[in-house]
Design brief:
Structural class: alpha+beta
Oligomer: single chain
Helix content: 10-25%
Radius of gyration: 22 Å
């Protein structure tokens, strides 16, 4: 074979491999992303509405997940100083999910919620009128090196963890 023919076949083979690999590269790059507080200021408002009042968000204590298909789950701590102690006890963070998720094994529809880690190792989800939507059990991570008021991490068993200090709940799509 002539060197010109070999070069043509090599170029064609290289191009075919590149075309076949392009979808694989997009899949590899299109994975779920855990969001840190520095990622959320453009996504979360500075104040939120809940149970007849407006509360300031604590964006330094926020996090979430951007799923590969572009949908989000976001959480941010809120200043509940204007609320009654009963409301403030179970409303510690604003929780937004753009897609239905499983939270502690239970189904949670897309929506905006108030959430809180409450006594007896429970995590409560309420609608914006403070009506309970669901309650799940929490877990504790004694090995967590740097607990913070709120953070999101990958769960080793699949899905993600929403933490308050060392307590956490697992959520997934």
């Amino acid at each position: 074979m002539h060197s010109a023919a070999i070069m043509k076949y090599t170029a064609a083979a290289t191009m075919a491999i590149a075309v076949m690999a392009a979808p694989l590269a997009a899949i590899a790059q299109g994975s779920d992303t855990v969001l840190k507080p520095t990622d959320t200021p453009k996504l979360l408002p500075s104040t939120v509405y809940y149970k007849g009042l407006s509360a300031t968000t604590q964006l330094r204590n926020s996090g979430g997940v951007k799923f590969a298909d572009g949908y989000y789950v976001l959480a941010t701590m809120v200043d509940t100083s204007g609320y009654s102690t009963g409301i403030a006890a179970k409303y510690q963070a604003y929780f937004i999910t753009e897609v239905p998720i499983k939270l502690g094994g239970q189904s949670l529809p897309a929506g905006i919620y108030g959430v809180g880690f409450v006594g007896d190792n429970q995590f409560v989800v309420t609608d914006v009128g403070a009506h309970e939507v669901l309650t799940v059990s929490t877990n504790e991570d004694a090995a967590l090196k740097r607990p913070t008021p709120l953070q999101v991490t990958v769960d080793p068993a699949g899905g993600f963890r929403l933490y308050s200090g060392r307590k956490y709940v697992v959520f997934s799509r």
